[in-house]
Model the fold of this input.
Amino acid sequence: SSGINAEWPLRPGTVEILVPEETCQDVYGVGHVVFGATWVFRNWTAAIADCESKGLELALPKNEEENAQLQRDLQASFETHPNAAKFAHENWCWIAATDEETEDTWLAVKDNEPLTYFNWDKKQPDNKDLPLLQKGKNQNIVGNSNLARTQNVAGIHRGTGMWDDSFVHYKRPYACLCPTD
Done:
């Protein structure tokens, strides 16, 4: 079939978007997944926009079980997806969490609500500043945005499931939360 129906409440004035099956079902022989991986390099904001363009949302585990499911789906997709081989050196994938508004207050992108579950790696989040050399070279990328100058967005390690804070302009793969039936 050409797609599955994205079933959740739609905002007034929006149209219903059909999601291609390959996004979430029978992903290269893996079968149905909860989180559909996208093996394309995008910065954090572009990853959010891409998921939204499909009628989905960037993945954000809300508990240990969802975190483990996201890690399994990423790993299964990595092992079978034809684009994944070029990502062998990239272990981090974007998730929909940010502390841009208030440092160390991590919010979900979807509803701007504080996170109640975290799976930070050791010594994370560390909120590193952009290195001085990069600040000068990347002024056009960074501008005056606090989001770009410090690590204010989050990623998940596809091998361990642990989280790290990162710079918004880094380009990484990501996963979208698939619609439920």
